[in-house]
From TrEMBL:
Every GFO/IDH/MocA-like oxidoreductase domain range: 165-296
Organism this protein belongs to: Niabella yanshanensis
InterPro entries, alphabetized: Gfo/Idh/MocA-like_OxRdtase_N, Gfo/Idh/MocA_oxidrdct_glycsds, GFO_IDH_MocA-like_dom, NAD(P)-bd_dom_sf
Protein name: Gfo/Idh/MocA family oxidoreductase
Residue stretches making up the Gfo/Idh/MocA-like oxidoreductase N-terminal domain: 33-156
Amino acid sequence: MERRSFIKSTGLLAGGTLMGGVESFAQHQSKIIKIGVVGCGDRGKGMMHVIQNLKDRFRITAICDVLDFRLDEARKITKEAPVAAYKDYHKLMNDQNIDAVVVAVPLNMHYPVAEAVLKADKHLYLEKTMTFDIAQALKLVQLSKERPKQVVQVGHQYRYSPLYYKVKDMIANGVLGKVNQIDCRWDRNGTWRRPVPDPSLERQINWRMYKEYSGGLVAELLSHQIDFINWAFDTHPTEFHSTGGIDIFKDGRETYDNVQVMFRYPEAGIIGNFGSTCGNAYDGYLFKIKGTKGSISLLTDKGVFYPEKNAGPKNEIVDGVTGASKITWNKDGGAPILPEPTKDGTWYALIDFHKAVKSGTLPDSNVFTGARTAICVHLANQALYNKEIQYWKKAYSELDA
């Protein structure tokens, strides 16, 4: 269900379908997906900017947010074309001028809005993490199964990046040897707060700080790397160890600002370490995959392969993966995985969303894979806040279609 060849995917990413001659207006219009956006905060507006740059595939026809100033900000993005604006997402669902809905609301509202989208017979692009808790993840899987014609894509966009596809391919072909350790960080040095124009809006705007609405750093940042490991190795962890606290900003927040989680993947023989802090930005985004033949160090848009000293000739190892006739090694003894940095992952993800809606295919990041990662995030947070090891349950493995 989750697997697609690298060639097929990069064929899509290179620019979609090539058409001979001149498209008729009707043909062009048939390609356009009319989008409603629910949630016009930072992420929602970021999605809107990318959608606006894909006008051959999408058109934003409606926006929704509970805060008036967010709607005003969103209108500025779509100022060249009028859009319907709603404060109640239920009313947006009744809008017949919408084919699909992008949902970028606080995590506790992911499931209620997603449920409304599917029951309104619209396609769904749901931001990560898929759901607030495990029960909601299982319910959304079931709801999606009952509506097989509707596409559900989850916003773990690394599954669409040519770079991360290449890394997955390298792992599958044994270039790293036996992978045994994963080290991931997503750090920053700041409060993680958004400005609040009115104190009464504190919890609505800074919802990430409060347990009622948020899964904290694990859900908002580390979930991307957690999801990629599930995908790259076609597995999931079974043991969840966590520690953390409110160690830096004593400002009334409830979610931790300093966390470290450790997962055990017994089928793959891997230990995964995932950490995030609001108190130091030196590492920033760090993603290292370590095997007996070599390591990969990743950023969001570029990566480097480092062979182990005892793994054989460098050129033989890398040429076998890249097909390159000439390898450029950096001063640390590593070779770039791709020759150029990739685009923002959201761009690739939205292109695939368009393809999935038009062709009725299952996206790489779908309701089943989204549920698996949401369960991982929730178990990690249970271990974090309850201070006890959590374990994967057999019932969680019965998610697939």
